[in-house]
Amino acid sequence: MRRAVYPGSFDPVTLGHLDIIRRSSQMVDELIVGVLNNSSKNPLFSVAERVKMLEEVTCGLSNVTVCSFDGLLVDFARQRGAQIVIRGLRAITDFEYELQMSQTNRIMCPELDTIFLTTDLRYAYLSSSTVREVGRYGGDLSAFVPERILGQVYQKFHEK
Ligand code: PNS
After folding, report:
1. Mutation test of ligand 1: which of 96, 101, 104, 132 has the most ligand atoms closer than 8 Å to its C-beta?
2. What is the DSSP letter of 121?
């Protein structure tokens, strides 16, 4: 059973994340999308909202589940019986941080390997922080987040 975790903040999930979820879910038997419940960051969406949005956009992918986690990624992966971590790489600027994180994780948990997928060129510029910035000023988000959650994302900016 090849099981992977795809961890992140997903604040909110973008089309780039969804592309990585789709592609990586085809490489494994089970993909667990792990939403970090990070109290030190001040997220726009609560962890429950982020999990719900991810569930909505992945509902057609039968081997994908979504849940939140606290603490270390290696502990979450161990608890879930995952041998693989999936991360997307958009540009060389991502590389240093991602390399450091995967090497740290491997020191703590040698049986856990990280697989990097290069982001589809259509989404190479895209990040959740871009979505938050454009949304904050009332911009059109339809090119950035899955259509299914567009209403919820606009609603959040409307409430702010
Ligand atoms: O979407 P993000 O914010 O780039 O995701 C970062 C994430 C959640 C993958 C990373 O911060 C993480 O794994 N955090 C959990 C704490 C941890 O295990 N850190 C250790 C390795 S340096």
Report:
1. 101
2. G
